[in-house]
Design brief:
Blueprint (H helix, E strand, L loop, with lengths): L4 E6 L2 E6 L11 H16 L5 E6 L13 H5 L6 H9 L4 H7 L5 E5 L2 E3 L1 H8 L2 E5 L3 E3 L13 H9 L1 H10 L3 E2 H6 L5 E3 L4 H13 L3 H14 L4 H16 L2 H13 L3
Parallel strand pairs: 2-3, 3-4, 4-6, 5-7, 6-9
Antiparallel strand pairs: 1-2, 7-8
Helix pairs in contact: 1-4, 5-6, 6-7, 10-11
């Protein structure tokens, strides 16, 4: 794992901290992308992990792209535009594919500003909790750019089209309270309570069947883009699998015992 991420375990919870506060945790550098993609692969392969918390070290969650290298890595410094196209596809665009295909529930503990690709990274997670010091901005237009990391697909699904347009067309930041009102985050807490709150929520999640959690997340993701009849068929198949898991048998036995049956 790259030194971009600090990894900690607490039972079934994995905590990944983007650990480059000196760059405000930019994520466009190739080693940062590699670290996050590899993290997703590691979690998917480890059935003992039931939830992932993603946060940032220092004052920022992530400031998005590295402006010092973005011209050479993605822009005019590469020469023909076709080279930039592949730089995006082989670089930062791997992030939304990896995060959206991550099998376990993910919580973004947004400790500070989440700008540009940092905002989109938060949207790639399933649940977002914000510190009172958090700020959110879909700020690409401020640099004469577009959200090349999939933000135009992600953000409307989180806050709705009108608010996504307002954020994308102005590039202006919104504070944590406005993010809560717009549904971008599910709760706002004091900065010193952010990780405690995220861990408490993760504890409530990992108390449940790991297999059921992974299948439930897949259904929720598929439900954003597929037909009802297709999702129902997929749900029937997943439920058939769930009925034959040890976790289901134990939970059912415990429930019926408490009911005295």
């Amino acid at each position: 794992m790259s030194d971009f991420l600090k990894i900690e375990r607490d039972g079934g919870i994995m905590v990944a901290t983007m650990n480059r506060p000196e760059t405000r945790n930019v994520i466009s550098d190739n080693d940062a992308v590699d670290a996050l993609v590899n993290l997703c692969a590691t979690v998917n392969a480890d059935q003992s992990v039931r939830a992932l918390i993603l946060t940032g070290a220092g004052s920022a969650f992530s400031s998005g792209g590295n402006l010092k290298t973005i011209r050479d890595s993605f822009g005019a410094g590469l020469g023909e535009p076709a080279h930039s196209r592949y730089a995006y596809r082989d670089g930062i665009q791997r992030l939304p594919l990896a995060l959206c295909n991550l099998e376990v529930p993910t919580i973004a503990a947004v400790n500070g500003p989440a700008y540009g690709a940092g905002n989109d990274l938060a949207c790639m997670c399933d649940i977002r909790i914000a510190s009172q010091e958090a700020l959110f901005a879909e700020s690409f237009v401020k640099l004469g750019l577009i959200p090349g990391d999939g933000g135009a697909w992600l953000l409307p699904r989180v806050v709705g089209m009108s608010r996504a347009c307002e954020m994308s067309f102005t590039g202006d930041p919104i504070d944590a309270n406005q993010a809560l009102a717009w549904g971008l985050v599910s709760r706002v807490v004091p900065a010193d309570q952010l990780m405690t709150t995220a861990l408490e929520l993760a504890d409530r999640i990992v108390a449940n069947s790991g297999k059921a959690l992974r299948m439930t997340k897949r259904l929720l993701r598929e439900g954003q883009q597929t037909r009802l009849d297709t999702l129902l068929e997929m749900s029937a198949a997943f439920q058939a699998v769930a009925h034959y898991t040890e976790e289901h048998d134990d939970a059912l036995d415990n429930f019926l015992t408490r009911r005295g049956k």
